What we know:
The chain is mainly alpha-helical. The chain has a domain at 43-134 and 163-234. Helices cover 57% and strands 0% of the residues. The protein has helices at 4-7, 33-39, 44-67, 74-86, 88-95, 104-117, 122-134, 153-158, 163-177, 183-188, 194-218, 222-226, 229-233, 236-244, 256-259, 267-272, 279-284, 293-300, 311-327. Residues 339-343 have low confidence and may be disordered.
Amino acid sequence: MPTPSNRYALRGDADLPQPDPAAAPWFSPSVDRKLLKQLMQRNDRHSLWNYGLWLALMLASGTAGVLAWGTWWCVPAFAVYGILYASSDHRAHELSHGTPFKTRGLNEMFYQLAGFMTLHEGHYWRWSHTRHHTHTLMVGRDAEIAVQQPVSVGGLLADLFFLKSGAAQIANIVRHAFGRISADGLHFIPVQEQPKVVRTSRIYLAIFVALAAACVLLHSVLPLMLVVGPRFYGGALTQLFNLTQHAGLAENVYDHRHSTRTFHTHAVFRFLYANMNYHLEHHMFPMVPYHALPQLHAAIRSECPAPATSLWDAYREILPALLQQVKQPGYAVVRPMSVASPE
């Protein structure tokens, strides 16, 4: 049996099985063109309020953590700060599409900020994520298949604190900073874009060095608690959200309904997750901004599998599937295309 690293490594066209041309087009639900055009409208005011609240909450919880440093009161403060900081992963995800803000400069500014916070170098990850949407869960083509089979339970548990993926991301940043584009990156980053990856990675590396120097000079890990560190110690909820997207679902199918999952949840989780719980809708129509995904869900739900009713309900499907994939690589949840019940 091929090892996961070999099976999931990106390959050239000649090394990939050629799809049946009749099956190649992705399934797309019917949606009124006028409604879709309306849903695709970007909104600076809505996004500035949303992102402003996110930054304000981080500032408040981070300040509370600093003021309480050395006491037990810093623990809840940094717990909140870490969760908010690590949720940058979901905001970077949405911002990579350029959809939250109408003003391009605002999208790019927040994207680069969120990209650093989640340790996804922005130029690399934009091209990686484009490939992910073009070839979702296509083995040998998609660079972002988070759960590779046979499933490594240890790896999944380590990533509750971003240990496995975080180490790989930092190694990539260091490699790129020295001018060596990763093997995967050579597959999807255009040659003319590669210098941008190197330049930004060098900025990241300089920040890492300055952060380490600050910790040494201050004889304290407090700087690390505020920058980079929160992506690790605050990452559990982020990982739980991320696994709902595709874990346990089918690879190598041209129908997002079989490879991507939507679940309902409450307002706090939707805020932290940037409405990416509507992930099936996001993959079918990636140019619809996060704030319009609930309306898109309502418009197409009759052609989609019924969503999980909560995060816990989603994991009632995910956990047995992952345990099955430990023993039986290739197993996938079969999802009936039933009409979703009204909310």
